[in-house]
Amino acid sequence: MQEKIKKYIGEIMVIVGSGLFSYNIFNFSYQTFGKGGLLKMPGTEELEGIAYYYSPNSLILISIGVMLIVCGILIIRSKNHERKN
Questions:
Q1: Per-residue pLDDT tens digits for 29-64
Q2: Which residues on neighbouring strands pair with residue 33, listed in sequence order?
Q3: Which residues, including other chains, have CB under 8 Å from residue 68's CB and lie 6 or more apart?
Q4: Model confidence at 2, in pLDDT bands (50, 70, 90)?
Q5: Domain boundaries, the chain
Q6: Quick one: CA torsion of 62, 68, 72, 78, rounded to 10 degrees?
Q7: The pTM is what?
Q8: What is the number of other CB atoms lying within 10 angstroms of the CB of residue 40?
Q9: For residue 37, how far is the Cα from the chain centroid?
């Protein structure tokens, strides 16, 4: 089992990173501001709009997902380069 994990570590990292990235990229929140909005800020009485944002945890998990994808691709490329030589 451990040999298969070592053999396919690059592919596993890409799959886990893709799942982590995809799950958290759609985990955004929003708030409305202005007339009838929930967010009351000075100077926004005449403005209306929606502010979309990510929580700090989602940003960290998105970054970890991207790092796993990039590391997995680099591992796969280095394995392919070793096989050709």
A1: 888 776 655 556 666 566 677 888 999 999 999 999
A2: 39, 49
A3: 13, 14, 16, 17, 20
A4: confident
A5: 2-84
A6: 110
A7: 0.76
A8: 9
A9: 29
